[in-house]
Every structure is written in C-alpha cells, then in structure tokens.
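Whether sequence alone determines local backbone shape is best considered at the level of individual chains. For completeness, the protein is quoted in full, as a sequence line and a line of structure tokens:
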Amino acid sequence: MSEYRWPIEKLNDILQPMRETDLIVIGSRPSQGKTTLMLNMAYRFARDGIRTAYITLERSTLELKERFVSSHFRDYDDAERLKKELNEIPLFFFDLRDWAIDEVAYEIEEEKESLNFDVCFVDYLQLICEREGEVDWFKELALLLEIPIILGSQMKRTVLDNPGNVPQEKDFRDGEEITACADTIIMLHHERSYDDNAPKEELRVIVSRDRGKPVNRETVLHFDWERAMLMEEKQESIPR
C-alpha cells in the first residue's frame, strides 16, 4: 500500500504518513484557515511531483487560482512565475459547485481514470447539495480509487462554548458520521480570531484521531495571513 508523507514537515511529527485509502477530515470554524492550509498542502504535493486534485465547492477554479497567486506573489515577475508554475505542476482544479454527492463522486472517479491523480482534496463537505451519507461516500471512494481524500468540514458554533474556544470532535457538523468514517481527524484553531492579543501568525493544529485510533497531539504552524502563505516553521510539535 502506498503512503505519502505530509507536505508540511511539522505535520509529520504528529501524524503517520497518509495511506492511499485514508479519509482525512480537516475541520474548523469559518475563517480559521481551512482553505488556506488545504491549498498550501495541495500546492506542495504537486510541486513535489505528486499528482493532486483539488475539488472546490465554494469558489470557481479561476477565483481559487487568482486567490492563490495574488496572495503569494511579491511583484509582477513573481506572479507570472507562479501562474506558469501552476500550469506546469500536476495540480488539477475542478469546480463542482452546486453538485450532489453522487455527481461529485462520479466526477472524481471519472477524472481519476483520466488524470490518474494520487491525492484528492475536497473543499468543503457542507457545500455539497442534496446531502445524505456523504462522508461514507468519500470513504468508499478512497477505498475504490485507492487514493487518500482530504475533506474539509465546518464546525458548529458550539466551539464557542469550549474552554478557550478550542474545537473538539463533538463540534463537527455531521460529527457522528465523521467519527465513524474518518481515518484521521484534524481540527484548526486560530486564537487571534477570539483574542486580539494572541499571535496573529499562529495556527494551532489539533489531531484527535490518526489511522482510526484516538490520539491527542498538536502542533503550531505559522502563516502569513495577509498572503495566505505558510511561513518558515519555528517551533517543535507539542504533545498534549
């Protein structure tokens, strides 16, 4: 069975390599960095030669690419270089807004046969139309296609009732289905969203499940939020 190291090194400190049949769920409240992290991961995978699909259910493909380019470039030449790179690396964007789960699954299966990608990102779960049992659909799809699927998910306002507003598994929308189907569960917490005195660049990554087993570890990533770009890693992972 093929395995893939995480494209962000600090995640390898707290997570085992993702397997080709894994369903990985990344959850957060809105504006906590879910799309930013998933886009950066997808870009790094593709830059390293791993064929990567990115399913967008929220924005058009053009909007997503423009967002990525505009947030990463420093000048005109830099922007042109990045646009060229995005067209050359094996990163494939698909706009499936307003699609039902069976249509999304069928399209991923068809594109997998055509493009033979190795990893698939889906951004994000709650935007799928005519929703019913979709987490199980994605797990079955990962098994069928033998690829890891990284699925973004919203979390409920109950996060605000937790100590320090830190997310827990119980706060997931579709929580029971996610707990039953996901091999790995990751939750994001941007403390600056709740506390103006907290470091703006820090994104707390909390892992509650890995390869189907409960774990309790976390690390801190550093982002340039103005550019939606991962910064140089500064700290070691933090056991909990």
User: Anything to note?
Assistant: The first helix runs from residue 9 to 12. Residues 234-240 have pLDDT under 50 and may be disordered.
